[in-house]
Amino acid sequence: MAPNNQNTKSNKKKAQKEPSAQELWETFPEALRRAIQENSMTQFDEAVKNVFTETPEILRKQCIQAGFLNEGTGNFSTLEDIKSQDMLSHFETNSALLEQLSELQGSTEPFLTEHPHMAAEHTVNWLTIAALSSAIDKNEEKLAALSEKCVVFQLFLASATGQKQFFKKFEVSENLDEVKAFKSRMRSRAQAKGEKPEKINLNQGTVDSRQFLEELKQLENLKKTEFAVQNYNKLVIRGDRMVKEFLIENPELLTEEAIKYLRILADTYSKDLNAKKCTDVSKKLTYILHFLTKKMTVAEYFVDLLAADSVKEYNDIWLVELRKMKQMMVDYKKARNPE
Asked: Which residues form the Cdc37 Hsp90 binding domain (predicted)?
């Protein structure tokens, strides 16, 4: 009996080590990804031969297990195809539970205790589109309930704590703010879709996976934009001494998109004839404009900024920006008080 037990344990370990489709895809070189996307067995074999010369059969087996290669037909599926198939399978298998969850009143903790497998990314996706449908219908009560459930599931999946600990910690202002932000994104997207937007039918067997995934992509882009705008505003109110640390911690702000947003902000402050805020914006705008002329990291940039030549470059850019904002304020003032 002992050897059998050991074999069972060994098989379990092997099963646990099998990579997911996402993990496997991330290991693939570009040539292999292209072969799968173009559904070319010839390119696939060539890529395997060139890159995975030692273990081609292992790789082929992993591709079959992960769903990239259909052994019977010889056809390939992309990562998006696999995700789409998994998502639709989750919807179909759990359609009754998803509907039950959407109508659930109060805490979702008992529901998760009874159905732990529902704590999944696909459940979050379903709830997100259900919330968007509520926003389109202007059903604020259902939007509020679905938004909270969606944020609960998102945070729960990202949390390393146990279920009981998580639900005790959820009712804090930061998490409730995220619920408000989520509702705001749903309303914004519903408005962007027009007066008579096309909704996604969430009933069993009628989900258009491509439309569904495209809508999720649009909502994710909206979330990223919203997050970026929050950080742009945080940057503007930072004092001069805190700008360096803030930009080192948030290097993603040093982009052309940030420049566009700060210019819009500068225009708004110019209309209000608020010289102090225009000056604050111009300083932060100059950091980004100056940084983008350099080929270095943020930390290296701030070291470089200690040099006299770099300081002169910064000041030259800043003076140009200040003159622009001063001229905008003059123009807006004239427009208000024409002679």
From this structure: 70-201
